[in-house]
Amino acid sequence: MIKVIRMKTKEEKLEEIRKKAKELERKLKQREARAIPREPVKKEEPKKDRVKMPPVKLFNKWSCNIEVNDPGMKRYITLNEKILPRSAGTYRQRFHKSKAHIIERLALHLMVPGHMGKRHRLTSGKLAGSFNTTMGIVERALQIMEEKEKKNPVEIFVRALENAGPREEIMSYQMGSIVARDAVVTAPQRRIDKALRLFAQGAYRKSFSKKKKMEQALAEELLAAYNNSADSLAIKEKERIEREAGGAR
Q: Are 223 and 206 in contact (CB under 8 A)?
């Protein structure tokens, strides 16, 4: 049996569309009646100018925004903006010490200035284990350097560090029945460590059992290294090590 389907005329289709439109309009009116009236949106007031904070300075005195000229040392000299550079043992891993502020590393070396080689040749005295004492010495030494040179003492210290880091040294190894020596390039991290150690030792020697204060001796040591003078123990040792390395090439 064949089922006959009657097609709708245009008038019937239009009537059906009108009914759907009326039904949608009725539902929208009901939804608007149930809706909670909203408050008018307030216009945002223009933002006031923010107060600019002053730049952070080392000890509230000196800027650390200094460019390191030595390309080898650039990655290993940290000059963050800090008032008091103290990491409190955060950087404990082997090579993470380069993340600590360079002024803090100098203060840490000053805590054991009598240690040379594998033993203490001079007693470290009151400086041993006292970070606050050594940091006070560093601050006073920077103050003395500023008064003498009329420059930012942190920049003077960075330039002294660049001058005092040895670039070559000797490596000894057994070769049959003799000990052979060869010249090797010093790693940047080791250059900084050796220079800081020699700064601390040189300043301590100048003030040990003498009337000269430690901060005065440290300022003289750093200024001599800044001027590339042989009065600095670090410069003297650097020249000796590089001279030996030149002879072993």
A: no
